[in-house]
Specification:
Helix content is 26%, strand content 32%. The strands form 2 sheets. The protein has an 8-stranded mixed sheet with strand order 11-13-2-1-15-14-10-12. Strands 3, 4, 5, 6, 7, 8 and 9 form a 7-stranded mixed sheet that branches. It contains 8 helices and 15 strands. It is of the alpha/beta class and 325 residues long. It is elongated, with a radius of gyration of 22 Å.
Amino acid sequence: PAEGDLVIQARARLKKIQPYAEVASYPLSGTGGIAAVRIVSPEGTSAKPARFRRVIVLVDVSRSLGTGGIAAAADFVDSLLAELGSGTRIEAVIFDRESKAVLGTLSESTMATRRKIVGSIRGASGGNGSDLEGALDLADTLLTRDSVDGPDEDSLVAIVTDGVLPRSQDGDALFKSISTANQKRVRVLSTVLVPPNAPAPVVHSHPLGQLAHRTSGRVAAIDYSKAKSAGQAQLRRLSKPTRLRNLSITPDRGSWEGLETLDAVEAGSSQTLFGYYRGDAPKKITVRGFRGADRIELVAKPLPRKTALALARMTLASTSPAEYP
């Protein structure tokens, strides 16, 4: 945003807790029309934090965070570690252009180990650069050394940063920093710290969001002032239903273009697909996929005529004339 811009941030509060789908269609001619399918994945509620056997926090202490950002990072980590269950083994990696393990190995979560980690973050004097890829590589090494038989997703890697990363470190590069052996066992919690009065960044499409999505994790932007309680809240988010994934969209009639597949819908968000159909307008749309390990099947509800027309106009705005039926 530039100086003088009005920035409005809003978060939808959905009454439903189960995923659902809606469809809107509008004829353009006798041979077809335009359509939109919206898939909504409510986050649901949970009073209990997620539990993990191993937790490694990766904390960005680079110069771009400044003293306020590093203090907020320490507050967030303190809140998160305090919420862990008994028997959890913990470690921390602080990084700028270089990475360093605080404890040297995964250790039992005690008051002493938690104080050492939080104290190391508060006392950090960061340099230039934010090599998250290198920090993930070190975390992967620590997990491999501590390898024990266990179920999938028994380990958490919690990243705390201001989100300023090198261009080369996209979601794929970050995911590949985790070895194949650990990819199924790790969930990633990505937290982007935001200074007071600054607009929250779009985190779901950020490399940190892409990495979290690849591991059935979560991503969030947290204001400095909320960091002291945010760690606890984020662990609760991890215990809620995971995203919808591997979605396919099937109409009861006609042929569709641009609406066939959708990779994923993150819990607590929605996705709207725009496209067009040939032949008769669909009356029933079925969305199939997975929510975590469970198969789901949603039957899309038709939207009212006015809403359908509004979505149709959005579709027209995003489609070139040559693509009309």
